[in-house]
Design a protein that fits this description.
The protein is of the alpha+beta class. The protein contains 10 helices and 17 strands. It has a 6-stranded antiparallel sheet. It comes from Okeania hirsuta.
Length: about 375
Amino acid sequence: MHRFLPEKLKEKLPSGWNDTMFWTAALSGGKKIYFDYCCEFKTPKSYQPKVKVAPEFQLSPENIKFFYENGYLGPFKLMSEDEAENLREYLLNSVVNTVPPQVDRSSYKFEETGNIAEDLLPESNLLTEEYKEYFSERFKTLNRHLDNSTLLALFKRPEIVERCAQLLGPNLLLWRSRFFEIYPHSSGTQWHQNSNWLYENMRDSVVNPSDSSELFQLTCWIALTDANKEKGSMMVIPGTHQTIYPIQRGSTLTDDNNLHLHSFGYGDIDYPIDNTEKKLIEMKAGEFFLFTERVIHGSCENTTDSSRWAVNFRLVKTDTRIYTEEMLEKGHKDTYHNVKNLCLDYWKAVLVRGEDHFGYNRLLK
């Protein structure tokens, strides 16, 4: 359909949508839309690990079956609580509170009006000065492994990578990382799920695997402080990764669904969250767990007097293309955040295991 339309109209249409996404929007009168690429999740023919690893990192077929049925695995121990606290202090003082070298506020512009987010998500972020400052500060917590060797070494730890390889395969790329703080006495993270990060651009997916229905990406979430029911524990709704759900456009967030100070602000996932059992992933500082972003997940509020800190990072198979050529050449249009011309010259993927036989992504040397 797109090829028959004028260029100006094509620029406003979500070219990354499939038929299910278009029909859902059309038949609901625009009340339901997909926030990310819609596809079903394939179950593998075998639950055997994809690679052989050292015994201390070995996953059993039962572990892998559990992951495919529930969408997560763990937690596992990575380091002692004292080591986690020392790492948190270092990262907070030497990384999170510093401006990364890749950030240049002149390298992106805020888009005041006329983007697809206004049509699809009119409740999305308003361009207040406070919001602009929040977005700029966000860079301090994003992809800092590209300029900090301590953080990169953390993400290469075999306790993590060798377990991920048994689920994804031998060749792995790190493509994004981020710090997360939940302040004392503040709400948690809103329920959400991702597949191909279509929501960022709202036209084309950021993450482009060879098959979106297969497991192609894992997120590793590392607790730098204790994370429990009282202090911002992660939560998942097991089994919801089997499909991607649309959102109720313009709906009022329920108390149970409105979980985060910096919430996504787009409405409720079209899923009976209030009537569904949630799984708390309570963790000690120094532990981590793995999950697919497809599973509906969020976090509890923090009712304590201290911040909950965590860092996560995302691994993909090497046959996955991150960002389109247009995004890399002309700059990323992060429509959901009302930003355009976001320069990606500094961005690179990192080969953390195996070999890259595809060459789809720029690699950190």
